[in-house]
Amino acid sequence: FAELHAAVPGLPLASSRVLPGVVLRRDFAAYCPADGELRARAPAARPDVPQRRVFVDSEGLYQASLRWISERTEASMKHLQSNNVKLLLSSVMQEEVVIYYAKLYGVPVVECLSSEEMALISEITGVSPYAPFGDNMDREITETAAVTFCQPLLLVSKRCIHIGFSVCVFQPHCLILCGLVDGVNEQHVAALQEAFTVLQQLFKTLDQ
Question: What stretch or stretches form a coiled coil here (predicted)?
Fold first, then answer.
């Protein structure tokens, strides 16, 4: 319930509504409008791959390493674009070079998602965060989720992200709950959460 509702103070209760999809309470790190169905990918925060350290002992080697990182990042973005991956969902903050090439190749980036938000997206889509694909830039990317729309959403002064996932089993909806002050919103949220809990218990009883 915590990830599928947003409390918005400063608006009357009549402004409340239900939106299809998921509302993430953060702004894009990189935003590029895209039409039609697209694919989303969620990088793993700590991929289970051997860690390597590189020691650079000269300015020339340092500049060469920066160029290599830039070239690898650009190649990765090209690979994502060629596989129609137009959205990256990340639990960590991305480097500036990633954001630069994401904007250049039209790949929106959402970063710093909570573990709860990542778990919800994984449950909805059935796609787990992926580990980097290493040097293999030729293989088709399959660990993706279908997205019907991905757009900015302004809730009073708070910038959010509204995403619709193309899934069959579970179609998530998000409750936008408005109230003039925080206290009223908290009361409404608590009442609705309690009502959903009662319904859950009722359906469990009926199933038994």
Answer: none
